[in-house]
């Protein structure tokens, strides 16, 4: 059975199709879930097995700024199950990806997991190399470098 692929849209096409309506930025007074997610990706006090990404600065204000950048200009990914994420590819590295406690790559993209409920929005740094040269399904513009 073929694996279903996600759909990618540039910010302009996603907006034109109304796919950015009703989305929320991370709250200025985050709930426990959002605090836990932000701390996980800004404070590398312990690493779980498998992949774990951490912002280079360790700053929650940088975390909030990157989430805002993703909302304002990020490209949209729609997974086969309908889940949406916005990703903002920074001009320089923003963090590190660890695998089983060892640094394995530099992160240059912030991925914002979207939700129609403001309590579910959270983000994390990731590596854009896994998504090299993705193009908008609608207009074919490159959304990653």
Summed up, the domain count is 1
Q: What is the helix fraction of residues, given as a range? A: 10-25%
Q: What letter string, H or E per element, gives the SSE order?
A: EHHEHEEEEEE
Rounded mean pLDDT score:
83
Helix-and-strand structural type? alpha+beta
The first-to-last residue Cα distance is: 30 Å
Overall outline: globular
Q: How are the strands of the largest sheet arranged?
A: 1-3-4-7-8
Q: Specify the number of helices.
A: 3
Rg from Cα: 15 Å
Q: Largest sheet, if any?
A: 5 strands, antiparallel
User: Which stretches are low in confidence, meaning pLDDT under 50 for 5 or more residues running?
Assistant: none
Q: Tell me the total number of β-strands.
A: 8
- How much strand? 25-35%
Describe this structure in words.
The chain has 145 residues and is α+β, with helices and mostly antiparallel strands. It has one domain. 21% of the residues lie in helices and 27% in strands. A hairpin with an 8-residue loop joins β7 and β8.
Quick summary:
The chain is an alpha+beta fold and 145 residues long. The protein has helices at 11-16, 32-42, 60-73, and strands at residues 7-9, 51-55, 75-78, 84-89, 95-99, 102-107, 109-113, 122-126.
Key traits:
single chain, 145 residues, alpha+beta, 3-stranded antiparallel sheet, 8 strands
Write the layout of secondary structure elements.
Elements: E1 7-9, H1 11-16, H2 32-42, E2 51-55, H3 60-73, E3 75-78, E4 84-89, E5 95-99, E6 102-107, E7 109-113, E8 122-126
Antiparallel strand pairs: 1-3, 2-5, 3-4, 4-7, 5-6, 7-8
């Amino acid at each position: 059975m073929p694996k279903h692929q996600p759909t990618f849209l540039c910010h302009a096409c996603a907006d034109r199709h109304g796919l950015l309506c009703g989305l929320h930025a991370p709250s200025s007074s985050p709930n426990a879930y959002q605090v836990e997610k932000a701390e996980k990706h800004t404070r590398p006090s312990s690493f779980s097995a498998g992949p774990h990404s951490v912002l280079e600065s360790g700053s929650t204000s940088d975390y909030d700024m990157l989430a805002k950048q993703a909302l304002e200009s990020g490209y949209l990914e729609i997974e086969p199950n309908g889940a949406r994420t916005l990703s903002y590819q920074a001009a320089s590295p923003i963090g590190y990806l660890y695998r089983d406690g060892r640094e394995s790559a530099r992160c240059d993209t912030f991925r914002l997991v979207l939700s129609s409920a403001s309590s579910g929005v959270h983000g994390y740094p990731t590596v854009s190399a896994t998504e090299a040269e993705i193009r908008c399904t609608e207009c074919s513009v490159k959304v990653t470098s």
